[in-house]
Design brief:
With 164 residues, the protein is α+β, with helices and mostly antiparallel strands. Strand 7 (133-146) and strand 8 (149-160) form a beta hairpin. It is 24% helix and 49% strand.
Length: 164
């Protein structure tokens, strides 16, 4: 079967409209970009990239009396530093994690899943979602400039059980 220009235009138009309608039914997906640590910083500190994991969640947002479910994909990147135990091999001795969340704009409003949370609350939320992490108390806090914004960075005591 050969399609003319008009039939092809109608087919493409229906496909585009269908995709838009399906998106309204399914909801939108918002995906964060990873927050990698510069190679020069890793070299200087002795840390290595361990893994990057996408964490999918569904949230219900409301605006103007309209409720909508959205899919959110956060990106967690883990870095570790190992110590050599000689004949026993190397062991993970220190770990830190970066977590990035996407910018979410729905129904004319902007939402941030961690807005209003302090660093302890973010740490508690992280611990509640990942059973291999046990986060203790905050032992240090300092201000850093990231992407032009000043943020407070906290250091916590903690433990991580190796997966598997």
């Amino acid at each position: 079967m050969r399609l003319g220009r008009r039939e092809l235009g109608v087919l493409v138009g229906c496909s585009i409209l269908g995709a838009g309608c399906l998106d309204l039914v399914r909801g939108e997906a918002f995906v964060a970009r990873p927050a990698p640590v510069a190679a020069s910083v890793l070299d200087e500190t002795g840390y290595d990239h361990y893994r990057t994991v996408e964490v999918e969640e569904t949230h219900t947002v409301e605006a103007g009396g309209v409720s909508r479910e959205i899919d959110v994909v956060n990106v967690r990147s883990e870095y570790d530093r190992r110590v050599d135990l000689g004949s026993l091999g190397k062991m993970r001795a220190a770990v830190f994690t970066t977590l990035s969340t996407p910018k979410i704009e729905v129904l004319g409003r902007t939402f941030n899943p961690v807005e209003g949370m302090d660093n302890q609350e973010v740490a508690d939320e992280l611990q509640s979602r990942y059973e291999e992490i046990s986060i203790g108390t905050e032992i240090d806090r300092r201000a850093l400039t990231v992407l032009g914004d000043s943020i407070d960075v906290s250091k916590f005591t903690g433990r991580q059980r190796s997966p598997g």
